[in-house]
Specification:
Elements lengths: L1 E5 L2 E5 L32 E3 L24 H18 L6 E3 L9
Antiparallel strand pairs: 1-2, 3-4
């Protein structure tokens, strides 16, 4: 048992002080506060001219990641907003159709 005195406060440690020098993990909230999985931040998955067929557009572009990674819903929402602003500015509101394909499991 090690006894440390610091500013008239008495600490009692059950091991050497090197065991308590660094805080390694963040505190985890109690399970009663974690009721379920939060809703995804991205709400709109289709933007632009949704009623047009696929053959009516001259170009089809896919953005694919070849690496395994966790993509947060905030990142998907930011990418959708940026792409929507760019396409609306340069192509017009009715000249494109953007579909965000969400993964089966997403990091929230």
């Amino acid at each position: 048992m090690v006894h440390l005195y610091d500013d008239d406060v008495y600490f009692s440690l059950s091991g050497p002080a090197r065991c308590y020098r660094q805080i390694k993990n963040k505190p985890y909230p109690k399970s009663r506060f974690c009721r379920g999985v939060p809703d995804p931040k991205i709400r709109i998955y289709d933007v632009g001219m949704k009623k047009k067929g696929v053959d009516e557009f001259p170009v089809c572009v896919h953005l694919v990641s070849w690496e395994k990674e966790n993509v947060s819903s905030e990142a998907l929402e930011a990418a959708r907003i940026a792409c929507n602003k760019y396409m609306t500015k340069f192509a017009g509101k009715d000249a494109f159709h953007l579909r965000v394909r969400r993964p089966i499991t997403s990091y929230r």
